[in-house]
Structures are given as C-alpha cells and as structure tokens.
Design a protein that fits this description.
By secondary structure, this protein is α/β, with parallel strands linked by helices. Helix content is 43%, strand content 13%. It is globular, with a radius of gyration of 19 Å.
C-alpha cells in the first residue's frame, strides 16, 4: 500500500475534517486529498494575521474558491496573543497554542487536522508542542510522508504548490527577544516582496535590529551582486540601516542556530 493510499484511508476514517490551511505545500496537499476523499465534509480554516504575507492569504483563498472548498477565515490578532509580541524562544508555541484553540472553536463538529510532515522534526519547532497538547491530528506525519514525497505527489496531482518555495511566518525573521511590531513585520514583507519580484524564489530577509540579512540559494549569489545597489537602496528606503548577504545561503531556521546548536 502506498503512503497516498494510507493517507486516503486515514482521512476517510475521520469522516469529517477541518484542515488548518495556510496555502503552503503541505496544507494544500492535505486539503486536496481530504477534499477528494470527503467532498463537502471538508472545511478549510485559514488565519489572516500580520505574520502571514498578503500574497499567501490571497493564494489560499483563490485555491479554495477554484476548487469549491468551503473556507473560514479567522482574523488572528497575533500581536495580542499572550507573550507573542515579546518574541521569546517559545513564541511559536505561544502563537500556535492560541491559534489552534481558535481553530478548534470554529471547526464546527469536524476533526481538526494540520499539515506537518516528518521533516518537521528536524528543526527547533516549539509549535509542535502546542499541536500535541491540543491533540490535533497530523495525517501526513501519521502515514510517514516527507516533504520531497509531498512535492512529488502534488506534482502528479497538478497542484499549483508542488514547486512552491518553503514559507514560514514573518515572525521567524527576527532575533529572539526583539519586540515584534506591525511596522517591522511590514518592512520584512515589503523587502521579501521586492526580492521575489526581482526573480529570487527561495529566500528570507532576517532582521537583526536595523540590519537586514538576506538569505538566498548559493546559486543566486551572483544575481544579488548584480543587483546590489538596487537591493540596498530599496531596503534602506524601507527603514533598514545596513543590508547584508548571508554567505551560508538560505537554510531553514537560521535564527535558531545560536540558541540550539543545529548548525
């Protein structure tokens, strides 16, 4: 039996599900398979917040509309979640705990599921603790799916997200302990939107006070150098004093490296 077949059986046995849907690779795949198996017994739950770029929210809404999937949008005031704006090392736990409590509240009579996969155990992810405490089901992990497999299956299903770059919430761009504000989050979103419009795909703009540390794939370093004046000018106009290129390139969870020895 394939992992996809196991996933369909798993979801069919749940009978009716609400999917925490961000519009990313994993949650789109999970929602698509759930909709195929359960039809109108599926509800997509999407958070609209200052931590999520507008393009991501728009893409999630578009996917549900095009596939006739019922969706609820939850306006999440994340900066007022207890402790979150202070950006402690367990910020993700505090945020996800409150967010999924609200998802449980609006999930009607459906079983809430979310899209983490087996690769998500490889980085410091305190949000997974919240998922476990609230007993949220994680079907992709339950059937043993890894990110690469999800991308391949998504490609076979013609899902628009199969090659989509990995995405994490905007709060992950900041040094732990730095207060999160709407203005700072908007600066990061605008900086990344500019780089995406310039042709970069997998990237992060990490923030260290007034320093912007750009992470792109090593093969894109030459493109950064060619555009260095334009990039520097644009990001300084957004409010950064210094603009740097990280010579290690893009990697998951680089803000965790000094804290958790995961380099």
């Amino acid at each position: 039996m394939t992992k996809l077949e196991s996933l369909k059986i798993y979801l069919r046995e749940l009978k009716s599900v609400a999917v925490a849907f961000s519009g990313g690779v994993d949650s789109t795949f999970l929602l698509a398979v759930a909709h195929e198996v359960l039809g109108d017994k599926v509800l997509a739950l999407t958070a609209a917040s200052k931590f999520i770029p507008k393009r991501e929210l728009d893409a999630a809404i578009k996917f549900c509309a095009e596939n006739n999937i019922r969706q609820k949008i939850f306006e999440a005031d994340v900066l007022n979640f207890d402790g979150v704006k202070d950006n402690p090392v367990d910020r993700c736990y505090l945020c996800k705990l409150e967010l999924f409590k609200n998802f449980l509240r609006i999930a009607e009579d459906k079983i809430l599921v979310e899209g983490s996969n087996l690769d998500d155990a490889g980085d410091y992810r305190p949000g997974m603790k919240a998922i476990a405490e609230l007993k949220i089901k994680s079907p992709l992990r339950e059937v043993g799916l890894y990110k690469a497999e999800i991308r391949e299956l998504s490609k076979e299903m013609n899902l628009p997200t199969w090659a989509k770059p990995s995405m994490a919430c905007l709060a992950s761009r900041f040094v732990y302990g730095e207060e999160l504000t709407e203005q700072k989050l908007s600066m990061v979103e605008a900086a990344e939107e500019f780089l995406l419009s310039a042709g970069f795909k997998q990237l992060r703009v990490r923030v260290h006070g007034k320093i912007a540390r750009i992470e792109v794939l090593p093969e894109d370093f030459s493109h950064v150098i060619k555009m260095h004046e334009e990039i520097s000018t644009r990001l300084k106009n957004l409010g950064f004093d210094y603009v740097t290129l990280d010579l290690q390139g893009y990697r998951v969870g680089s803000m965790n490296e000094p804290h958790f020895d995961i380099r």
